[in-house]
Amino acid sequence: MIKGILIINNHGKPRLSKFFEHFTEDNQQQIIREVFQLISKRSDRSCNFLEGGSLWGKDTKLIYRHYATLFFIFSVDSSESELGILDLIQVFVETLDKCFENVCELDLIFHVDKVHYILDEIVLGGMVLETNLPNIVGAIDAQNKIEKQENPLMTGIKDVLQTIKR
Question: What is the pTM of this model?
């Protein structure tokens, strides 16, 4: 089972944190700091798996990938496959890339609700729901269409603003 998902930039600032186990906010902040300290010390040639640290508990593994300025970190129990989670991270990043057209750190900051929605299409309650990229993107596109139908005024305003920017 997945215990938590973190996206942290190179400076240790969390850009997304989702915990599937209950932790107080103070404990969550401690976990984020500890995870960043563990991962940031490692070289790029090191293995992408390590023990979860003291706050996650026993039998916890951290599986991560480093893309540009962001660490994508999944905390899992011993029943999860390390290579399967690495593949899941790749699917998550590719989905973000398709939805935001070359995703960057600012997309995660300014569109946190959409990022959480994308993550919820892939993982819910600590269990993997979907790993097929076209199915995930299709569900997100359907949600975007519904949002546009429900609020045509906002769509019109966004179109006007985009025209002005050009």
Answer: 0.85
